[in-house]
Fold these 2 entries.
Entry 1:
Amino acid sequence: MNPKVEQFMAQVIAKNPGESEFHQAVQEVVESIIPFVEENPKYKHAKVLERLAEPERVFLFRVPWIDDKGDLQINKGYRIEMNSAIGPYKGGLRFHPTVNLGVLKFLAYEQVFKNSLTTLPMGGGKGGSDFDPKGKSDNEVMRFCQSFMTELSKYIGPNTDVPAGDIGVGGREIGFLFGQYKRIRNEFTGVLTGKGIEWGGSLIRPEATGYGAVYFANEMLKTKNDSFKGKIVCISGSGNVAQYATEKATELGGKVVTLSDSSGYIYDPDGINTDKLAFVLELKNVKRGRIKEYAEKYGCEYHEGKRPWGVKCDIALPCATQNEVNEDEAKTLISNGCFVVSEGANMPSTPGAIDVYLKNKILYGPGKAANAGGVAVSGLEMSQNSLRLSWTREEVDEKLHNIMKSIHKTCVTYGTENDGFINYVKGANIGGFVKVANAMMAQGYV
Ligand code: NDP
Ligand code: 2IT
């Protein structure tokens, strides 16, 4: 390891003990940025990297709520306000039992660079709870969301900090959260994104992350004069991001053969067509069932407790969670002919897996570039809320498409190496850094 990176990481680890995902996210970024900062010492003197690794503010609070049996339950609630150099804090809320400070800090840290890449004026934040919506009734989810927002409402606002969804937080949760904010503050504002279309939401927001990850993959393919046509695509997850990645990859001529959830994956060699995808949407978003039921309905293979990376494919779109592709799985993907990885999820590839992609010089789009479409359309939702009007589906989709092209271009600018290989990791990290760093330099030591 570069000794400067080692030195920097020793400090980050000492200051943030036990936060392994946060250490991982910071290390991936500083490996790209430290050489760049050495060439641009103004950033070094202003300790921009050190400041970026320290949240501006962290809230940690108790969330008491009553379950359907009448028993009191207590969860932890968090909001990390990471960096506001280029705009209000912006980033999702995750409700999942694995949520802890280190996980949310990794997500908030990534969000700062991602939001900068979108070209829109958004700082970075993230929040959530160790609450598990799985198996809870709608009323339990509502009571939890109301209690969570009762505290969170003290810290957020349309010009301060604008949360949205992430794992375990979709349209239902955003509705309950918005209702409680409006009730407490008596304000109808764009304080959250991912709202319903009838009450201030944006068209294409539900689709945006998945579509964006596919648009980004398509831009990478174009650099090789290639496209999705006739490609076999493996997707993990079956939630919001996976669903719309499946839709767009299929629309562009790919054949999506896998989806998964935390219990296992399905393999459908005939491809997940429009009708089958409609079944998945109903299964996951309305019935809240398991992906196994897809295999039962369509008579295809289901692999309990396994991830889909052993299936032969040309394109892999990890759309479930962090560290879901390890070094061995990355090697398997490549030996099976996979040459494109575009990350719908945040940090789905382990450092070992990323090394494998880079050594093999495949087209690898890291999450902070490839999945930025979601927050980008959140930014467009904020714009529409401020203007008090709404754009058409076509308008929003075109803006999203152009933003993904622009992010790709930024990665090419900062990531192209001497032999012509585009290192999208380096490109995304430096491209995201420059705007935030310049803003921090202009605003003094805050
Ligand atoms: P959802 O809650 O809609 O879906 C999550 C999916 O991932 C489910 O299929 C879930 O399975 C699976 N999953 C979650 N945790 C694990 C785990 N520990 N192991 C295996 N599978 C798991 O979330 P999203 O689709 O919104 O988010 C997916 C990823 O995309 C996350 O990394 C998120 O941070 C990222 N992302 C989301 C954006 C958005 O706009 N929603 C924007 C940018 C990135 P199960 O149902 O069994 O839990
Ligand atoms: O990780 C992410 O970018 C998101 N979960 C979306 C954040 C947002 O504010 O739309």
Note: The first strand starts at residue 57 and ends at 66.
Entry 2:
Amino acid sequence: MKHKFIFITGGVMSGLGKGVITASIAKLLQLSNQNVSCIKIDPYLNYDAGTMNPITHGEVFVTKDGGECDMDIGNYERFLNKDMSRSHNITTAQIYSHVIESERQGKYLGACVQIIPHITDEIKNRIKKISNDEKLDVTVVECGGTVGDIESLPFLESLRQIKAEFGNTWVLFIHVTLIPSLDVVNEQKTKPTQHSVQELRKIGIQPDMIIGRCEKPLLEKTKKKIALFTNVNVDDVISCHDVKSIFSIPKILSKQGVTKSIFQKFNKINIYNNTKWNKWNSIVRSLQESNKTIKIAMIGKYVSLSDSYVSVVHALKHSGASLQKAISIDLIDSENVNLNKLSSFDGILIPGGFGIRGSKGIIETAKYAYKKNIPYLGICFGFQLAIVAFGLHCCKLEDANSTEICTATKNPVVDLLPEQNDVSKVGGSLRLGSNTITIKKNTSTYEIYKMNEIIKRHRHRYEFNKNYLDIYEKNGLVFSGESDNGRRIEVIEDPTNKFFVGVQFHPEFDSRPGFPENIISAFIRAAIL
Ligand code: GLN
């Protein structure tokens, strides 16, 4: 069966926000009643994003089925309010290892295995399979990187072939480029765009639409010039200028006729859905309007790039919006925490993290938040180090620590998951994806979720050591959530504090604009008080 496709390529440089533009285009189609989803192609040789440093590549987004994915998958899920599977993030490593494995199994017996057609066929099959399996009206595929990169060539070639196979009314190419403005002359420069479109044409791809990333709205004369040099209709040269909230981008694109043009090119009737648009507009408005700012300190070691914690940042804002509050987030380096300054914040959040560096600062922060009764939410690493802080401070457990930080600690209150003992491979080997958590009645966590069971995503190798359960309970800590038939602790809370909660799972991956995550909202409510 044939389905429609939109392929998004990038020009001039990376980091233009192609992921957000991809998600916004998919959103426009969704708001016109289309069953739509997105795929991200990452042409790098890592099998997945799990082993990459968040400081250079942004957060690792975890899907329900345990994929460690590029952060763009998070953008897609948030814009479309839809869960994606790991198959939506395709990398060079996945394609090559599959083809090489197939060759070893004799699947291509007799043939000389080549990039074209074997690698390109595998890429095309994966893309088509998703659109078939999910019965998508339109599949929006974002090709990571920049046109001209050697590593993206087989992917662009595959996309070109799909268009050749399906035809113009089935496949559209949208090219996202940078339109810089020179300060001195204040003129929008089109040359880099001209060159990157030439680069695309060289490999047989003519874009149907160009979206220019620019500081200020694209001027009519800039649009005309781009149209002239690129063979794109002037109405299909679209401005995507800087905005305060990324969620206003669908509207900016729609106002310039993007939805209309896509439907026309697809020979389809646009089923504009007023109710859906009104709902979306009010969500976007709520994210921008607020009557008071709540100050949150977020302490971690990847603070030099705010994208390292992008889902947590969004989740806090979704919760803030639902409570009519703006959220300001200070990212603080865990290696340089000034505890006294933390008292000026309404709440302290410790997100996920790994390794020794900065862990001392986090333990001190957790202890400080506890003592000063400042609302504290610890996520994963933040949960584990809150347990360490509680052990040291309240249970007086000498030298209490996580064995991730100190293997020889006298009191390993956080220890390796037993099934991890024999794991030697780093990639893809953590406890990953969704698991069911049972919530204990008569606890704050139960009040917050109002459910006996919740399903949440995970990404960890260490956990609370249950040998210490009694001593912690005697000292007042409540274990309010567990999983795997009680084998693992998932939630801790301290009833004597305003809000001192830790969760082993990652609530941030389930938060969506207009649909905030319960425990994050409870944290913000406590911070407002
Ligand atoms: N490093 C910790 C672990 O592996 C926490 C991981 C995380 O915060 N995602 O268990």
Note: The first strand starts at residue 4 and ends at 10.
